Amino acid sequence: MTFACINYDASGDCCRKLGGECIPGRRGCVLDGQVTLSNELRRRVEELEKKQGKSKD
Predict the structure, then answer these.
(1) What is the pLDDT of residues 35-44, one digit of tens each?
(2) What ranges do the domains of the chain cover?
C-alpha cells in the first residue's frame, strides 16, 4: 500500500490522529469516504471495531 498522510507515524507504524493502528479509510481517518476499502482493509477495520467495542463494555 502506498500513500502519504501527515498523521502517519512511520517510526511507530501508527496513526497519530486516531492513536492506534493505521488502517487507511477507517472511520475518523482523513481518507474516510474518499477511498474504497479492499476486502482485507474492511476485515481489519471490522476486527478493530469489535476489539474496541469489547473494551468499552
Answers:
(1) 788 899 889 8
(2) 8-56
Q: How many residues are present in the chain?
A: 57
Report the largest interatomic distance among the alpha carbons of the chain, rounded to a whole angstrom.
35
SS (H, E, C) 10-39: CCCCEECCCCEECCCCCCCCCCCCCCCCCH
Place of cell 501527515: 6
Is the distance from CB of 41 to CB of 23 less than 8 angstroms? Answer: yes
Write down the pTM of the prediction: 0.64
Bridge partner list, 20: 15
